[in-house]
Amino acid sequence: MISSWVLKKSLTCRPNTRSSHFVAPSHSNGCTMSCSYCYVPRRKGYANPISIFVNIEQIGKYISRHAAKQGMFMQPDHVDDKYWVYEVGENGDCSADAAICDNVKDIMDLFKTIPNSKLTFATKFVNREMLTYDPQLKTRIRFSLMPHKMSKLVDVRTSPISDRIDVMNDFADAGYEVNVNFAPVIYYEGWTEDWLPLFEELYDKLNEKTKKGLVAEIIFLTHNEQLHDVNMSWHPKAEEVLWTPELQETKFSQTGGKNVRYKRGFKKELVDKMVEMVNQHLPHCRIRYAF
Ligand code: SF4
User: Fold this and answer.
1) Measured between alpha carbons, how far apart are the two ends of the chain, in Å?
2) pLDDT value at position 277?
3) How far is CA 72 from the centre of its chain?
4) Which atom of ligand 1 is nearest to the CA of 39?
5) Cα(164)–Cα(30) distance, rounded to whole angstroms?
6) Does residue 89 contact residue 135 with C-beta atoms inside 8 Å?
């Protein structure tokens, strides 16, 4: 659902630390899907229709200038070996956006012309049309995955997890760098047993090429009291696993939002367990970060 075509007024690239070096100005805002833990509507007043930014050329020129100012990428780090990396999907899902406008294709084409940089975004939507975009390894797509059972409960309107896994080899063959986000990782009684079939499915379905390039980002659940209140009136079942105050503590985000996450010592145990499981069951897969 597109709510509007609007002008993106403020153009800035924000430094980032985990998935990318920078967050690029977005080409859209909002999402057709409705994951019950999503932070995007928190920033939009809890309605989440898509606004498409019409000044995509201006946005592209701004990104090109920003990348030129960075100079050559000289120091390989956890984010990348060769390039400055720009997150372009912070305010929505790029694969869903690409089904309704050309902005994502335009941005991907732009990065093919920028010698020192690549782009990245996470997605929960399968858009096979994107297999024709020819990104020439300048796009890192991160398929977000979680156990099937939990996804059915909290990933509202997204593509089924198996569909996401099924296209990963095709995306690698089509010139994408294919990574995964294990996110959000949600704690509940028996959570570890539910991840094992997912790791097995990945191991069985990915070919050697995709496995070789696979890197995982592991992100534990962050939730929010206002979103919890909203969800209680339309999706209370999910809140039974998302809202567990006895296990969670308050955290202020970089943008000033008041969120909750698993308590520090408890979370460390969860992170260590998840890392151990990935290392054991997906031995090809490197971990970019886990938090
Ligand atoms: S797909 Fe991403 S942006 Fe869209 S609702 Fe889900 S978490 Fe939010």
Assistant:
1) 33
2) 98
3) 26
4) 8
5) 21
6) no
Determine which of 39-43, 132-136, 184-188, 189-193 has the lowest per-residue pLDDT on average.
39-43
Per-residue confidence (pLDDT) for residue 4, from 0 to 100: 84
Residues constituting the chain: 291
Ligand 1, atom 3: closest residue by C-alpha: 92
**Whether residue 33 has its Cβ less than 6 Å from ligand 1:** yes
Mutate-to-test residue for ligand 1 from 26, 40, 42, 222, highest number of ligand atoms within 8 A of CB: 40
Q: How far is the CA of 35 from the centre of ligand 1 (A)?
A: 5
Euclidean distance between CA atoms 67 and 116, whole angstroms = 7
Task: Write down the residue that tokens 């995509």 correspond to.
Answer: 56
pTM score, whole prediction: 0.96
> Stretch 86-105: mean pLDDT, rounded?
96
Q: What is the atom index within ligand 1 of the atom nearest the CA of 89?
A: 3
- Rounded to whole angstroms, the Cα distance separating 27 from 244 reads 35
Atom of ligand 1 minimally distant from the CA of 41? 8
Ligand 1 contact via 35 beta carbon (within 6 Å): yes
